[in-house]
Amino acid sequence: MQTTLKSVVTFEGIGLHTGAAVTLVLRPAPANTGIVFRRVDLPDQPMLPAIWDQIVVSPLNTRLMNADGVIVSTVEHLMAAFAGTGLHNVIVDIDGPEVPIMDGSAAAFVRTIVDTGLTRLSAPLYAIEILRDVLVVDGASSAKLSPATSLQIAFDIDFADAAIGHQAKTLNMANGAFVRELCDSRTFCRSADVDVMRANGLALGGTLENAVVVDGDQVLSPGGLRHADEAVRHKMLDALGDLYTAGAPIFGRYDGVRAGHAMTNRLLQALFAQPDAWRRVRCDAKIAARLPGVGVTKADLYAVA
After folding, report:
1. I need a labelling partner for 20 at 20 to 30 A (CA). Which of 98, 116, 281, 295 fits?
2. Domains, the chain
3. What span, in angstroms and rounded, lies between the C-alpha atoms of 304 and 180?
4. In terms of pTM, does the model score above 0.90?
């Protein structure tokens, strides 16, 4: 069955790139609504469905844009929280162009969603089953979807800074794995990149409190890392959020090698351009048990930083 929130919840924070204060309100929604953002600060309060073909390419975040040029950016952490807690229908009211960064992870969103609880709706849930390999490549970077009986995410990264270096991880996302293993992993950047981003009008709200900043073999953020491999875990978090813009949960294995938001979106474009590479499947109880958010409880939050 599809789900929605039991009640309205509110978040306040700043945008990582804009540095502007923003209020985010999650509202319960009827079955088959999906994930929809509503810009309540603009005339007519335009709605932006969080769907792969409404995304404009950005190397640093996932940005929705409608036909009139209205945007909502940095949606990936919130989308990961929705996917990882099994939330299918929600109206996201936002009074600015960027989702608040919170602590740089999805943990605050996940805690509140799990604490609030979900309501089951009397409508069937459908998932996207991957039937054959789909691959996109750009130089040394690649992203692939292949058949699997649950959503699995594998990621491989390699950075010159010794504080990150080479990291690789694979997880089956069923049974609360996202909540326990990934949701508290923060976005990260190199100290050398911060000034460049700010000179280009980006990362204006970035601090050592909402991102992991590294310089060579040093972690500059207070308290250090939450996980020795926090960087690759965060890339997996991003991938889960970006994959959820498919419009339904995915049964398949995602392999990312030095991939980012733009490449995952290219992968979804390639998938949906090939009708023989996927199919919609109705989720009975047995199938639904393999989805990322099914079975998540408050006990899973004890593993979260």
Report:
1. 116
2. 3-120 (3.30.230.20), 126-303 (3.30.1700.10)
3. 6
4. yes
Residue 103: which of 254, 304, 281, 288 has the closest Cα? 304
CB 188 within 8 A of CB 194: no
- Residues 292, 237: Cα–Cα separation, whole Å: 12
Helix/strand/coil (H, E, C) string of the chain?
Answer: CCEEECCCEEEEEEECCCCCEEEEEEEECCCCCCEEEEECCCCCCCEEECCHHHEECCCCCCEEECCCCCEEECCHHHHHHHHHHCCCEEEEEECCCECECCCCCCHHHHHHHHHHCEEECCCCCEEEEECCCEEEEECCEEEEEECCCCEEEEEEEECCCCCCCEEEEEEECCCCHHHHHHCCCCCEEEHHHHHHHHHCCCCCCCCCCCCEEEECCEECCCCCCCCCCHHHHHHHHHHHHHHHHHCCCEEEEEEEECCCHHHHHHHHHHHHCCHHHEEEEECCHHHHCCCCCCCCCHHHHHHCC
The residue from 17, 88, 234, 261 that is catalytic is 261
Between CA 269 and CA 265 the distance in angstroms is: 6
Mean pLDDT of 170-175: 93
Q: Which is nearest to 232 in space by CA: 275, 142, 171?
A: 171
Which has the higher per-residue pLDDT, 216 or 197?
216
**AA letter at 45:** Q
Do 105 and 90 touch, CB atoms closer than 8 A? no
Is 261 considered catalytic here? yes
Q: What is the mean pLDDT of the chain?
A: 93
Rounded Cα distance between 206 and 98, Å, is 13
CA distance 300 to 292: 13
Contacts of 284 by beta carbon, 8 Å cutoff, 6+ apart: none
- pLDDT score at 193: 76
